[in-house]
Specification:
By secondary structure, the chain is an all-beta fold. The chain has no helices and 19 strands. The strands form 6 sheets. It has a 4-stranded antiparallel beta sheet, with no helix packed on it. A hairpin with a 2-residue loop joins β13 and β14. The N and C termini lie far apart (36 Å).
Length: 192
């Protein structure tokens, strides 16, 4: 839904969105381009794939964007403020023949037209964040008892020591103390 009067009235804004309406996360880029992540669903025992949509007209209509090959559970999307076409997509894996695949973290450098995997496909990545003082530094938090960091735009990763809570939520760089990070969790408090 969309409101143009501060939330007093709302109208549907679903034109172009297919049968899964599990709107999960939105990202507005400078210039007005709006991205919508639709969460994976389970309906009548069958998986309904998640999706990515884009609107360039204030949510009047939506265009389906390509998902990374094999991925069906987008969870979070962030953009590099220095290069908005460079975005990072956090995904939940799916189970194929007993293996968890097509999750992790993906990178696009062309505004979401193509993706490549930059973090383990079996990982349950909830969200990622860029360090505001150095966008080449990325952090991610997982549901796998670990958080990770990269100082080279995701080419190499290291586990963040001292954190091992199972249900990680969001990494949030401390804006007042560069180099420090908050890790939010589902049920484990706030880690710093």
């Amino acid at each position: 839904f969309k409101s143009t009067d501060g939330g007093r009235q709302w109208s549907p804004a679903n034109t172009g969105i297919e049968n899964n309406l599990n709107a999960w996360r939105m990202l507005l880029l400078p210039g007005g381009k709006l991205f919508l992540l639709v969460a994976r669903d389970l309906r009548d025992g069958k998986v309904v794939d998640g999706a990515i949509y884009c609107s360039e007209n204030g949510a009047e209509s939506w265009k389906s964007m390509p998902m990374p090959e094999g991925a069906n559970a987008p969870n979070d999307l962030i953009a590099d403020p220095q290069a908005p076409g460079r975005m990072y997509l956090s995904c939940w894996p799916r189970t194929v023949e007993g293996r968890e695949v097509n999750g992790g973290l993906f990178l696009t450098e062309d505004g979401g037209e193509s993706w490549r995997q930059i973090f383990r496909e079996e990982a349950h990545v909830y969200a990622a964040a860029l360090d505001p003082s150095s966008p080449s530094t990325i952090y991610l938090n997982t549901f796998d008892m670990a958080a990770f960091g990269s100082i080279d735009r995701g080419e190499n990763w290291h586990k963040l020591e001292g954190y091992d809570f199972k249900w990680g939520h969001r990494p949030v760089p401390d804006p007042h103390n560069p180099g420090m990070l908050f890790l939010t969790t589902f049920g484990g408090g706030l880690q710093y």
